[in-house]
Amino acid sequence: MPDPIVITRNVSIDPSEIEETFVRSAGPGGQNVNKVSSAVQLRFNLMASPNIPEAMKRRVAVLAGKRLTKDGVIVITANAYRDQPMNRADAQQRLVDLLVAGAHVPKARVATRPTFASKQRRLEGKAIRSSTKSLRNRRPDLDGA
Question: Is the pTM of this model over 0.90?
Answer without folding.
Answer: no
